[in-house]
């Protein structure tokens, strides 16, 4: 049954993308064809007012472009495969390059483990924080979840684009809701038949309701992901860590999230803010890769303050929970 559901999710993915693009562009059209001309009157505006109108128009163009850019990048960017194989491989990658990449993964894994781990499903090398996606049927680096709305997994290489897409969507939905409520009142006043806009009245009402619903839903999801970012976790790791915290508490031990460097540093690491990419590059709609290759991750100082045996036990316990999660639907 689970495999049937996974296959259905995979097959319906492109339809979800088409629906998402249509709904987003519907709200954008509603803004430019109704809300903007209703809110701003160019002919009677002063010089300063016209400058403000131009700046507002530029801001909204920027927001719409960022939404589409990050959505496109979240869809088209491979989340990262454990051996650059299958769906996550480059189209121009030769078999020799794939084999060399596989050897590199094994070498990297041997640096921090006694023996290379392999996935129980796809039998590929399984680095830390990697999980098997049952929908894509492949292991994904720093796997968070599979999202049907992007027809892709959210993983190491596209997680940043996914979060920024949600961020711009939430801000834009709130902006649209604030400025469109007056035209909305007019659109539902069917006693007054005057409607000087090309955009249909029912569609404007639908667009506002849609923006509010999308803003609330995506706002909750976006807030959840920022919490995970600030605490250096993925969705899968959150549940694993919750289980391990309880287990450590019953044994009188202290659980330490080995990837948690503090909220500020976690944020910088996730968005790859540093000497090469400054903080303001977060606002640039340009391709920016994540930090690292997604196979080996630096551990925090608190983790290394634990005894060596405790470190090994926590790593091994984390690996066992990951393996159990990946084997659930076999």
Summary keywords:
single chain; 330 residues; mainly alpha; two-stranded antiparallel ribbon; 9 helices
Task: Summarize this entry quickly.
The chain is mainly alpha-helical and 330 residues long. The chain has helices spanning 2-39, 47-76, 95-110, 159-187, 201-230, 235-250, 263-270, 301-304, 308-326, and strands spanning 131-133, 138-140, 145-147, 152-154. It is an enzyme of class 2 (transferase).
Number of helices: 9
Cα separation of the termini: 11 Å
Please describe the biggest sheet, giving its number of strands, its sense, and whether it closes into a barrel.
Answer: 2 strands, antiparallel
What overall form do the CA principal axes indicate?
A: elongated
What Rg is obtained from the alpha carbons, in whole angstroms? 24 Å
In total, the number of strands is 4
Provide the β-strand percentage band.
Answer: under 5%
From N to C, what is the helix and strand string? HHHEEEEHHHHHH
The helicity comes to: 55-70%
- Kindly name the structural category: mainly alpha
Q: Strand arrangement, largest sheet?
A: 1-2
| Unreliable residue stretches | 85-93
Mean pLDDT: 86
């Amino acid at each position: 049954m689970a495999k049937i559901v996974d296959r259905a999710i995979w097959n319906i993915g492109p339809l979800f993308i088409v629906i998402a693009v249509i709904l987003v562009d519907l709200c954008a059209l509603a803004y430019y064809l109704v809300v903007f001309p209703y809110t701003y009157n160019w002919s009677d505006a002063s010089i300063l007012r016209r400058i403000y109108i131009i700046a507002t128009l530029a801001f909204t163009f920027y927001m719409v472009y960022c939404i589409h850019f990050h959505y496109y990048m979240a869809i088209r960017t491979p989340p990262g495969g454990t051996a650059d194989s299958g769906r996550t491989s480059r189209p121009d990658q030769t078999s020799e390059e794939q084999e060399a990449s596989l050897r590199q993964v094994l070498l990297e894994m041997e640096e921090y483990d006694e023996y290379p781990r392999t996935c129980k499903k796809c039998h590929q090398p399984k680095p830390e924080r990697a999980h098997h996606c049952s929908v894509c049927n492949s292991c994904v680096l720093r796997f968070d979840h599979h999202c049907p709305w992007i027809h892709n997994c959210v993983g190491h290489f596209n997680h940043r684009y996914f979060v920024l897409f949600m961020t711009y969507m939430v801000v834009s939905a709130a902006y649209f809701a604030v400025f469109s409520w007056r035209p909305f009142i007019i659109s539902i006043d069917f006693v007054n038949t005057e409607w000087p806009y090309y955009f249909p009245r029912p569609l404007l009402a639908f667009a506002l309701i849609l923006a509010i619903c999308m803003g609330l839903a995506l706002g909750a999801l976006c807030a959840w992901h920022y919490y995970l970012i600030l605490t250096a976790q993925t969705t899968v790791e959150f549940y694993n860590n919750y289980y391990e915290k309880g287990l450590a508490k019953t044994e009188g031990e202290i659980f330490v999230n080995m990837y948690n460097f503090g909220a500020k540093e976690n944020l910088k690491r996730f968005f790859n803010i540093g000497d090469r990419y400054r903080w303001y590059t977060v606002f640039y709609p340009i391709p920016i890769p994540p930090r690292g290759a997604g196979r080996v991750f630096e551990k925090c100082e608190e983790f290394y303050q634990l005894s060596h045996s405790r470190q090994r036990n926590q790593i091994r316990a984390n690996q066992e929970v990951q393996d159990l999660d990946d084997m659930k639907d076999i």
